[in-house]
Amino acid sequence: GDSVTQMEGPVTLSEEAFLTINCTYTATGYPSLFWYVQYPGEGLQLLLKATKADDKGSNKGFEATYRKETTSFHLEKGSVQVSDSAVYFCAFPVIGSARQLTFGSGTQLTVLP
Amino acid sequence: GAGVSQSPSNKVTEKGKDVELRCDPISGHTALYWYRQSLGQGLEFLIYFQGNSAPDKSGLPSDRFSAERTGGSVSTLTIQRTQQEDSAVYLCASSVNSNTEAFFGQGTRLTVV
Fold first, then answer.
1. Rounded CA separation B90/B103 (Å)
2. What are the chain B neighbours of A44 within 8 Å (beta carbons)?
3. Confidence class of residue A96 from pLDDT cuts 50, 70 and 90?
4. Residue of chain A minimizing CA distance to B56
5. Could you tell me which of A105, A109, B48, B56 has the fewest CB atoms within 10 Å of its CB?
6. Mean pLDDT over residues B71-96, rounded?
């Protein structure tokens, strides 16, 4: 069935380090793909998205490319900041009896000064 | 409205009591989702509405949980005979349709004592 597998955390990095959070999916067809972020004490918010294969979503220095051949949507940032500390969720709408939005398990990122 | 609104923001209830959680989605959004986020856990899908219909209720954890949506807008999640394991943050989200990004409310933090 359709599913999303996300790299487990927690991930701890020093400021200015390179970040990769892996996300792979199993889907029927080619749905839109999303990364959501949850900052401490706040609600979930969309970070970036890609609507079709080879699209690159980007926002706040984060990037993710929709890779059809590897069914992946890995999140990357070249130089993380302390303010990037949050939980990151990969998600996509699952085609089944209805299109529910399915999330990965979330990856806790802590960036140390 | 400008965003997804959930009420109450916090609810403390005694074990065995019934509770109702309310979600006001963004105007014009046909898709509405309920999720549960337990402490230290990822997002657990509960139910998805397309308009007033709920094509997939498979995420509801037991028959004590029910939800409805009226007028293609407001949704209510009802938990009967609450148990301590129901304690969690209940998140509501809406989207224009099931293949676009979902916008989340701030959630209702439910504590069953």
1. 14
2. 43, 91, 93, 104
3. low
4. A98
5. A105
6. 94
